[in-house]
Structure formats: structure tokens, C-alpha cells
Specification:
- The protein has about 400 residues and is an alpha/beta fold.
- The chain has helices at about 20, 30-40, 45-60, 65-70, 70-75, 80-95, 110-130, 145-155, 160-185, 195-210, 230-245, 260-270, 280-295, 310-320, 340-350, 360-380, 380-400, and strands at about 100-105, 135-140, 190, 220-225, 250-255, 300-305, 330-335, 355-360.
- Helix 2 (about 30-40) runs antiparallel to helix 17 (about 380-400).
- It is globular and about 65 Å long.
- The chain starts with 18 loop residues before the first helix and ends with a helix.
- Bound molecules: flavin-adenine dinucleotide (FAD).
Length: about 400
């Protein structure tokens, strides 16, 4: 990346309120667009209606793509092709923020689709090799294999001969991607998904970590701390890592499928895997940060969150241990288009920061965009914070003129 890192002890006083730093990369027009989008997504009914309407309009072949591309897609995604998202990578790189290219094609359910996704993932890993602005890559396991197959394996159900063959192909695709990441020396984050496919994902991720993380963490698995069982699992992973002598790569997030998880548990009458309250989730998240700090010799972490208190907790724990801001085992990460006040201010203070940057055809990114919009409406306080900082920066620019 362009600017040298500051090898100083972590600064507990870093401010997330400096909107000039947060939005330096945005023109007045872009800022106005963000203001409109976050203003609209405040209304949950409107968001649900617009998400469905966009899907329907695209399916009917109505010419709405340019409008989606110029608005919500522009806010949350890098572009459809390399040329478009390369500009975003450079812009983020200028602010010392790394990009994690997120190939956001969801819902593929055939072998040809899995093969083509694997090809694209290998291409991204190759691109990351020579680009210091791409510190790592990421993937969804169910993008290279059937969701139903992951579900069956997670439930320990018997497989047909064809399914056994299909599973072998999933493993082989994954091995190729992890091997390429290892050769490129760039970590790959394996995203966490719905709990009913996660057991199979966990098993594969553990196998890859034990194989490729001998010297440093190349393969990272993800813990969703809205689940009440994840810190126990974290401790088990640490114990295994210590016994077998490899490094543990962990991304921690709160979790994106809350309503789906609760609905399913209710429908099938089992105990919901999700914490009862937001406060419980916050407590579990912060506990995982503390577990990490206590095991920093064998764990490398990506703290994927827009929660200022959780970021601040890690900063304070780093300061208490006198760790440098850019400790190689610690990355802060936010989604592109969200919480720029956290990303840009942390990067300015010399912390390792990256943004998940989704890209792909507009039609294929719709489920991701709908999740972002719906998630934002569901998070009490988050949207008002996004709006609050945009309004503050617009005011600041007006008075600075
Ligand atoms: C870099 C990055 C990578 C990500 N990767 C993944 C991934 O692999 N898998 C995935 O699932 N998500 C992933 N996410 C999405 C992440 O889960 C959401 O951003 C997250 O849900 C928002 O949490 P927060 O910590 O940013 O914010 P906060 O606003 O503090 O927390 C909101 C979250 O708290 C939880 N929550 C809200 N209400 C309740 C309640 N009543 N009871 C219990 N819990 C509640 C939910 O998880 C909700 O999303 C990723 C996010 C980032 C930034």
C-alpha cells in the first residue's frame, strides 16, 4: 500500500468522528447519493418493497439496471468488471485500505456454475499476488458446491453415489483455491453461512487450515458470534491448533442470517442457535476478541464489524499489551459502502484495515444488496449512525466553502 505504516503502540484515543477523513474519497455528489440511499433504507417496508420490485423488474426484462447500477449498486459494490472495481481498489489503497474482492454471484446450483465460480476465485487469487492493495481474498463454500449437499453432510445424512462424487469435486475445487492462495502467500477468508450448512463448512475449513497454515494463517474460517456456541468452538479450535502446531486464521462477525435462523428453528421446533438478545451477541463478540488477544501467538484475526465499541475494545486491548497498530496478526474489516468513519480513521492511525468489495453482474448481486439494505433497517441505531455522519460531513463541507 502507498503510505508507510506506523509502528507505534496502539492508540486508544483514535476518533471515529472525523468525517473529513472518512469521506475524503467522496465527491459532494457521491455524498448526496449516499444520503439518499441511507435515508431510504431507514424504512423497512420500503426496503422490502423495493428489493422485491427490483428482482421482479429485472426478471421481466424492464430497463431498471442502469438505475440500480447508478444508485444502490454504486454504494455497496465495486462494479461489474475488473476495469470498474480496479478504480475503487486504487482509491481505497490511496487511503491505506486494502480491498477484499468478494465475487458476489449467489444461488448457483449446477456444476457448470460451480466450475465458473472456482475459475473466477482462482483469477482473483492470481490478481492478489501482484497487488499490495489486495491483502487477501474471500469465498463462500456454497458458491463452489450445492447448498443441499452441504446441508445433507451437516445433518449426517447418507449420500448417493452421485452425491459422493459431487462432494469429491467440491473438495478438489477448494483444495485448488487454498493451494493457489498458499502459493500466492495471500490469505483466503472462508465466509460463514446458515447454521444448517455450517458444520460441513467448518469441517472442510479445519482440514484446509491444518494443511496450509503451518507457518502463517493462509486459510481463515469465520465465527458468527450471534450463535451462542461459537466461543466454545473457538476455544476447541485453539486447543487443536496448539496440539497440532499450526496457525489459526479466524474472522469474527456477528452474523447476517438472524431472521432466517430464528424462523427455521421455530418451524422445525429446535432450540434456536442464535443468542436471545442483541446484548448477548455483543457480549459473545467481545468475549471472542478477548480470547483472541489471550492467544495472539497462534491466532490471526480479522475483526469484521461496523460496531464502534467492539473496534474500540480491540484497540484498548492492543494498547494494554503495547502491541503496534499494524500488528501482523490483526486486521479490521468493514463492508464497502458502510462505516467509512471507522475504516478511514483506523487506517489513518496506522491499523491494518480492509474493505469487503462485492463485484459481479448487477442481477447476481441483488441478494447481497437486499441483505445489506434489510440488515441495515434491522439494526437499531446503525442506520442513524450512517446518516448522522453523512449529514455531519455535508454540513462541514458547506461551512468550509
Ligand atoms: C468484513 C465483514 C465480513 C463479513 N462476513 C460475514 C460472514 O462470513 N458471514 C456472515 O454471516 N456475516 C458476515 N458479515 C456480516 C456481518 O455478520 C454483519 O455485518 C453483521 O451482522 C453486522 O454486525 P456488526 O458487528 O457490524 O454490527 P452491530 O450493529 O453491532 O450488530 C448487528 C448484528 O447483531 C446481531 N443482532 C441484532 N439483533 C439481535 C438480537 N435481537 N439478538 C441477537 N443478535 C442480534 C445480528 O448479527 C446483527 O446483524 C461480514 C461483515 C463484515 C464487515
Amino acid at each position: 500500500m502507498s503510505r508507510p505504516k506506523k509502528h507505534e503502540a496502539a492508540d486508544a484515543a483514535v476518533s471515529f468522528e472525523d468525517t473529513e477523513v472518512a469521506f475524503k474519497h467522496k465527491s459532494d455528489r457521491d455524498l448526496w447519493l449516499s444520503y439518499l440511499i441511507f435515508g431510504l433504507t431507514k424504512n423497512p417496508f420500503l426496503v422490502k418493497f423495493l428489493s422485491q420490485a427490483a428482482k421482479w423488474a429485472l426478471a421481466m426484462g424492464l430497463p431498471v439496471k442502469p438505475l440500480i447500477k447508478a444508485t444502490v449498486f454504486k454504494q455497496f459494490c465495486g462494479g461489474e468488471q475488473n476495469k470498474e472495481y480496479s478504480e475503487v481498489i486504487c482509491k481505497l489503497g490511496d487511503a491505506d485500505i486494502g480491498t477484499i474482492l468478494d465475487y458476489s454471484v449467489e444461488g448457483t446450483e449446477d456444476e457448470a456454475g460451480f466450475e465458473s465460480t472456482q475459475k473466477e476465485l482462482l483469477r482473483i487469487v492470481e490478481q492478489s499476488k501482484s497487488d499490495p492493495n489486495i491483502p487477501c481474498t474471500c469465498m463462500k463454500m456454497t458458491a463452489i458446491g450445492s447448498f443441499d449437499l452441504f446441508k445433507k453432510i451437516s445433518a449426517n445424512e447418507p449420500l448417493s453415489t452421485e452425491e459422493i462424487q459431487a462432494w469429491e469435486k467440491v473438495k478438489s475445487r477448494l483444495e485448488d483455491i487454498c493451494e493457489a492462495s498458499y502459493q500466492a502467500g495471500k490469505p483466503i477468508y472462508i465466509d460463514a453461512e446458515e447454521s444448517w450448512v455450517q458444520t460441513a463448512i467448518d469441517e472442510l475449513a479445519e482440514e484446509m487450515m491444518s494443511r496450509y497454515n503451518r507457518v502463517k494463517a493462509i486459510v481463515f474460517t469465520t465465527l458468527q458470534l450471534y450463535r451462542w456456541d461459537r466461543n466454545d468452538y473457538f476455544l476447541q479450535l485453539i486447543q487443536r491448533t496448539r496440539t497440532e502446531g499450526y496457525k489459526l486464521g479466524i474472522k469474527i462477525v456477528r452474523g447476517a442470517y438472524l431472521e432466517k435462523e430464528r424462523d427455521r428453528a421455530k418451524r422445525y421446533g429446535y432450540r434456536s442457535p442464535i443468542n436471545a438478545t442483541k446484548e448477548d451477541t455483543d457480549r459473545e463478540y467481545d468475549k471472542s476478541v478477548e480470547i483472541f488477544i489471550g492467544n495472539i501467538d497462534v491466532v490471526e484475526i480479522c475483526v469484521g464489524t461496523h460496531n464502534e465499541a467492539s473496534c474500540r475494545l480491540l484497540i484498548e486491548l492492543m494498547a494494554a499489551k503495547d502491541l503496534p497498530n499494524d500488528h501482523p496478526h490483526i486486521y479490521f474489516s468493514q463492508l464497502y459502502g458502510m462505516s467509512d468513519n471507522i475504516s478511514f480513521n483506523l487506517a489513518k492511525a496506522g491499523y491494518n484495515v480492509s474493505k469487503y468489495l462485492p463485484f459481479g453482474p448487477v442481477e447476481s448481486t441483488l441478494p447481497y444488496l437486499a441483505r445489506r439494505a434489510e440488515e441495515n433497517t434491522a439494526i437499531a441505531g446503525q442506520m442513524s449512525k450512517e446518516l448522522e455522519i453523512i449529514v455531519k460531513e455535508r454540513e462541514r463541507r458547506k461551512t468550509a466553502q
